[in-house]
Amino acid sequence: MKLGAKISVSMILLALLATLLAAWLAGFTIRRSFDEYVDRNLYYRLDGIRTVLADYYLDKGSWTDVQTVFDSLQLKGHGYGYYGGQAGPMSGRRANGSAMVMGMGSGDVLLLDANGSVVASSDIELLGKPVSEASIGQSLSIKVNDAAVGSLIVLNLQKGVLENEFINSLNKAILWAAVFAAIVALLLGMLISKHLTRPLAMLTNAASRLAGRDLGYRVPVVSRDEIGALAISFNNMAETLERNDRLRKNLIADTAHELRTPLSILRGNLESLQEGVIEASPEIIISLHDEVMRITRLVNELQDISLADAGELRLNRRSVSVDELAEKATLLFSGEAKQKNVNFQVDIQAGMPQIYVDSDRIVQVVLNILNNALFYTQPGGSVKLSAVLQGDSAVFLIRDTGMGIAPEDLANVFERFYRSEQSRHRAGGGAGLGLAIAKGLVEAHGGKIWAESKVNEGSIFSFSVPVSKQTAEKNNITI
Ligand code: ADP
For residue 465, what is the domain's CATH number? Predict the structure, then answer.
């Protein structure tokens, strides 16, 4: 069943249920109030007759000829009833009008003497006949000087003739109301379902377009309700998918581009060697080896990137001292710095606590940044590695006095394969993956990485890692 049909059917059922309930409740309440009214009314009327009859008895000393009083009271006519017995649908059970209609209830009024014999009746036929207890509707005893001289009873009291009529006409009205409510419910249901299903249909269409790789398609956000929120989430998802798709395409294109250069150098040199154009001199072999190392480095970096992407960078965390980390990095770096005549200093804040990290990975981050710093710093310049405690994080800073980074490049240096225009023109350097990998590793530790720089003055690359295991766990990091 379609959503629209479901809504319409529910609305109609609800409308019918509500009207039925209203009909039942109204019928019940009306019937009860009518009954109470009839009983009360009947009592007052009988009480009036009782007074007349008691006076009669007091006057005559017996019930002789009391039927004339009954007749004069016109009990079968309009006298005490609201409605005469002669005509109309509510005239009681007898067409000849013998029944008395009393406040919307009808029945025969009888006078019994002290022995229980019928001495007067609104219906002459009942005179002298026995009265069955079961048919007595109401009974009032008549007393004269404190002695019971008879009783006034109503036989075959039929309540609710008028009441039934009233309820029937009410039910008819309610039936019409139900039909009307059902039609309104149907129209409303159609309106609501159209209102609801239109954006859903748009979302379904957008989802199929997305599945068909139309990643640029966005669904219009037409409402501020839950469906609007769904449309916004859908668009965000489409945005992420499109960005990831772009990144994936770029990654493949950039990888191919980065591999092409060393491969063509290798191919060119190998062909020249084959053809005997050049000789396999030690210099040629070293240059071929350099190119192979470049490819190896690129492949390793790509592997790190793909692991970081998949969230599968396995960190082998343990508590290590910052000094120990700095020493490792210094050992691997200071020789190159000396070779390039760049002054290298290390300054670790005294009393730094141990940090809970994968030391190899953090050394890799420090070396990636240090190598960049050395690469972009002229001989005679300086590179400094320092570490300080900030809150519950250890912050590493690598300062250089190199060429600096232009503001437009600074925002992108952590992107994959990003190299500034200047560094593209320089020989050497990596494929633009070093800082992207550093970022992935630092973030996998629950830390942050950032850079500040001034062109021709130098750059400061900083990153933080949480000191304690607890903070690392708090940052939701898999350990
Ligand atoms: P690469 O592996 O090519 O060095 P990185 O991701 O490490 O790639 O760096 C990206 C780009 O950031 C570099 O190409 C360079 O333009 C710029 N860069 C990084 N570090 C420095 C620095 N210390 N001084 C100047 N430019 C830098």
Answer: 3.30.565.10
